[in-house]
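ugh ok fine here u go
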Amino acid sequence: MECLSCTNIVVKLCLDKMGTHLSPSPVLFAAVQRVIMAIPVVVYLILVSPRSFKHLLHRFPAFVTISVFEIVAFICFLKSLETLLVSYAIAAKRSNVLLSVIVGRVVFKEKIWKKLPFVILMVAGMVLIILA
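structure:
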């Protein structure tokens, strides 16, 4: 099952790279991709839980801020695909787990000691991919 998941990620990233090269700009590609991805989610929410939009509107500024940061990160990732091999771009993208663990500790006071060995293993794997 993990092999299928990894294959899915690699295929998606290769398609992202092709889409970025064929699109007039990475910003346009990112916008079109995000709109296409949002349509099924909105339809699902309308069918299953229409009241959930009230929560989205209540926290709209936070969602907009998070969305802006996510879009900027995605556009930077697409720009990296223009110059890097996909495996290097994946390694760099997956390095965000370190930042997530640190933010979880600092902001949310999470106990990270159980997660730390796995994070170190992931970062070591990323370093090995980059140095290969």
